[in-house]
From TrEMBL:
Regions crossing the membrane: 21-39, 67-90, 111-132, 144-169, 181-201, 213-239, 279-295, 301-320, 341-360, 366-383, 390-410, 416-431
Keyword field: Membrane, Transmembrane, Transmembrane helix
Record has Magnesium as a keyword: no
Protein name as it appears in the record: Uncharacterized protein
Entry keyword annotation includes Nuclease: no
Organism, as annotated: Pseudolactococcus piscium
Amino acid sequence: MFYSNSFRSLVKHPFFKKKRNRYITCTMILILYFAYFYYNMVELAKISMVNQNISLAVIVKGQLMTFFSACSSAFFFGVILYLFVVNTVALDKVSLFFAKSLPFEENEIQLSFLIFKFSIMIGLYEFIMLIITPMMTLVTSSKLLFILIWLILQAIFILTCICLDFLYKKMTTFTKGKGRVIVKYTVDIILLLSALLYYFLFRYKLEEKLSGFTTHISVLIRLVCLSILLLLLLSLLLIRKFIFPEQILTTSKYIKIGPTIKNLLSSNLISLLRTKNNWYVLFLMIAFVVILYVSQDFKQLGTILQMILVFSGIFCLPFYDNMSRFRQLFTSYSISLKRDIGYQLMMLIILVLPYVIVSYDNYLNLLQPIWVALTSLILGYLFPKSDGILNETTQMIILAMTIMICFILWKKPELTSFIIVAQLFLFAYVIKKERAVGEK
């Protein structure tokens, strides 16, 4: 039931109803991945040629650093994806009703929802693993060791998620009501900031020390694999013995800020502030800037701000969900399609204005935040969260892929500009279709 509700909107999406479109989508994904894999193999061949002139000790140290870096990444993504799924995946009212009314024991429902959430986390991580896996060829060429490394990374990720879930469930037993919500968000922020600090600042020194081990890399990988798998088995036994109640409920993701038909631009901007997740992301962006500013030189603050403000467009992801009911009144109030599109584009311009101020010396960089903002807005229309509980996850996956493409093409402004123009036409087409459906 949880899965059918999650994938309902994807299966019933007009684009995926045709077999041709499904085949085209799968083929494009496979082509992109194999192109990425081929690119990594070519780069690996170049590195191998260079390695012929490097001493064996340096090569072994590089292999160990790559291995421990992958382990750090597994831990980091475990924290990030756990927090992401816990804060975004929730049942809608229909699924909640059936979950509570069907003749199943409470423990069975709790366990089913727990497995459902963990399967989403693992699924997202497997998507990341498709990108990380080619890098492991830098560590070893042995198929056995390659499989052991894959098991280690999987086990670290699952172990991290289990430990965090145990922590959160234990925490809820000591808090009630609003205090529970406050404590939860506080722990979310502490965990996320700690993960960011570790991944971007502290892990390099740790990996440098660990790479100094004199143990042969094959023996070390076997020892790490055995230790991690034993810890994972122990954690699974603890979960079986200490089962805490899973909170299966629907919660409001919005702040009560009402739009007004008199000023459509201000209503569009206000709608971005209605989503609690946007406030959450805004706070994290500010905290991330402060952390990097404290650890970096003041002269590099502009570069740091540019890196952060590129992602300001992600605030547009929930725009359609926030405005969907309000937009049904547009025809009654004679708000034309051109005016609707114009005000949304003005909203995007206001969002990227801080980036313009920071990167005044190179306006070509402005193409990146515009790309992200337009993509976010279009994805919000194509995959609204209200149509399925995994739509937000789908949005983030597609957005991450397009952002990667954006950064790859940032040195080619002509091609990037062409893609943005194509995005504008696609955006106008999506709005036109949405208005046509709303008028029926």
